[in-house]
Design a protein that fits this description.
The complex is a heterodimer of chains A (112) and B (112).
Chain A: E1 4-6, E2 11-14, E3 19-25, E4 32-38, E5 45-50, E6 55-57, E7 60-65, E8 70-75, E9 84-91, E10 100-102, E11 106-111
Parallel strand pairs in A: 2-11
Antiparallel strand pairs in A: 1-3, 3-8, 4-5, 4-9, 6-7, 7-8, 9-10, 9-11
Chain B: E1 4-7, E2 10-13, E3 19-25, E4 31-38, E5 42-51, E6 54-57, E7 64-70, E8 73-78, E9 87-94, E10 102-103, E11 107-111
Parallel strand pairs in B: 2-11
Antiparallel strand pairs in B: 1-3, 3-8, 4-5, 4-9, 5-6, 7-8, 9-10, 9-11
Classes of the chains: A mainly beta (112), B mainly beta (112).
């Protein structure tokens, strides 16, 4: 079983729609979680951290469910500029030995 | 200037050649990482370093070596390049509080 699993998509969504991605992780001891965004042939960039209480940043909402070991990302009122690959990222290391493990990514295309 | 700079941006090399990829950072971060990205496989950790005297193997270190010349510099070497090392290589940094990674723009390496 992969340490971090995502639906690869692609998700083709009309502009203005709401879209949600889920991600599961295998290591119950994982301590920190992130969503990164990667545009084609570019470096990944941090979109948002994921906190236990859930967190929101504008049109983006991230949720963490430790009991079920999954993370979600919700994008509301999607824009053409949201088209990208979204990477679910989990810190599988212990304190002082942090290392990020990346999912393979979910490709999102927003359709005009 | 970028916070994390990778050179070269693109490189084509022949099988059996030795090649070095370089990474330098101006963020003052202690921790540096090398990842490779292949289509459909996500990012895989090659090596990482938490300070100048600390070097650790990642999940796919065979065929690679690294050198941490200074806090700001972390180089990746392919001693004898082979075609299945064709990939997109990313360097990343993080601070000791591990608030996430900052990535370089990547090096696209092709081994023919």
């Amino acid at each position: 079983r992969k340490e971090v699993e995502q639906d690869p998509g692609p998700f083709n969504v009309p502009e203005g729609a709401t879209v949600a991605f889920n991600c599961t992780y295998s290591n119950s001891a994982s301590q920190s979680f992130f969503w990164y965004r990667q545009d084609c042939r570019k470096e990944p960039k941090l979109l948002m951290s994921v906190y236990s209480s859930g967190n929101e940043d504008g049109r983006f909402t991230a949720q963490l469910n430790r009991a079920s070991q999954y993370i979600s990302l919700l994008i509301r009122d999607s824009k053409l500029s949201d088209s990208a690959t979204y990477l679910c990222v989990v810190n599988i290391g212990s304190r002082g030995n942090e290392k990020l493990t990346f999912g393979t990514g979910t490709r999102l295309t927003i359709i005009p | 200037d970028a916070d994390v700079t990778q050179t070269p941006r693109n490189r084509i090399t022949k099988t059996g050649k030795r090649i070095m990829l370089e990474c330098s950072q101006t963020k003052g971060h202690d921790r540096m990482y090398w990842y490779r990205q292949d289509p459909g496989l996500g990012l895989q950790l090659i090596y990482y370093s938490f300070d100048v005297k600390d070097i650790n193997k990642g999940e796919i270190s065979d065929g690679y070596s690294v050198s941490r010349q200074a806090q700001a510099k972390f180089s990746l070497s392919l001693e004898s390049a082979i075609p299945n090392q064709t990939a997109l290589y990313f360097c990343a940094t993080s601070d000791r509080y591990f608030s996430g990674y900052t990535f370089g723009s990547g090096t696209r390496l092709t081994v023919v």
